[in-house]
Amino acid sequence: MEWSIQDIAKHASTTSRTLRHYDEIGLLRPTRVGSNGYRYYNAAALVTLQRILLLRDLGLGLPAIADVLNHATDATGALRTHLTWLQKEQDRLGRQAVSVRKTIEQLEKGEEPMADKMFDGFDHTQYKGEVEERWGKDAYAHSDSWWRSMSDSEKAEWQAQLAALNSDWIAASEAGIHPDSEDAQMLARRHVTWLTSIPGTPAAVKEYVTGLGDMYVADERFAANYGGADGAEFVRDALAIYADRNL
Q1: What is the mean pLDDT of the chain?
Q2: 235 backbone φψ class: left, alpha, beta (φ>0; ψ -120 to 50)
Q3: Which end of the chain has fewer beta carbons closer than 10 Å to its terminal beta carbon, N or C?
Q4: Comparing C-alpha atoms, which of 176, 171, 178, 179 is closest to residue 226?
Q5: Is 127:144 a contact under the CB 8 Å cutoff?
Q6: Counts for the chain of helices (H) and strands (E), in that order
């Protein structure tokens, strides 16, 4: 049995664009391509896609995922490993839900939330593997040390700044402005300033910025921060123009 690329995109809650990108980089080839140019996938390809999505949720970048798929040929054994991780993730999300519920209850009662109870299950290290794969262990170690040194209020302020930046990116994208426009380039400058404020930012800033832009588009987790694929492409293009002119 085979499924079209549109069917697979729908069932996997992804996009045809993402699946075509996986094909282009050799990560997931279609089982066959019809005379009309449409891509079709069989059951084995679906298992591979499931593994890709699971590894992506583990925080691995696409090069690392390709390496795992090339070396771990036992799909059943690999899926058992993924299942173990999913069970741990289920526990983590459960603890997050309890933490948030307690915070809501305390706020509704007019009580001050307790810092030692608010962050159970929240793990800023979830992208550790991807950061180390792309930019090295030193980059992760520096940023991790910096994050741990911050107070709860400092962390909240930093996250608020990031949320505001992402919101402004989305608004600019939805307004249909060009990545080369003054407004878009002001956002790009803010974005780069935010990036370089994090200790451990690689010295090759231009390559770092353009590489992140590509990752925003290729990885739906990041694209979601900018309103989806179209927003991520807008951010990528604006950052690439800024990097080319200023870095």
Answers
A1: 77
A2: alpha
A3: N
A4: 171
A5: no
A6: 13, 3
φ, ψ of residue 204 in degrees (nearest 5): -80, 70
Three-state DSSP string of 12-72: CCCCHHHHHHHHHCCCCCCCEECCCCCEEECHHHHHHHHHHHHHHHCCCCHHHHHHHHHHC
Could you tell me which residues are beta bridge partners of residue 3? Answer: 41
* Bigger pLDDT: 136 vs 107: 107
What is the Cα–Cα distance from 247 to 114, expressed in whole angstroms? 43
Residue found by looking up tokens 């090069």 in the block:
63
Whether residue 152 contacts residue 133, with contact meaning beta carbons closer than 8 Å, is answered with no
| CB-CB contact of 67 with 60 (8 Å) | no
pLDDT at 143: 58
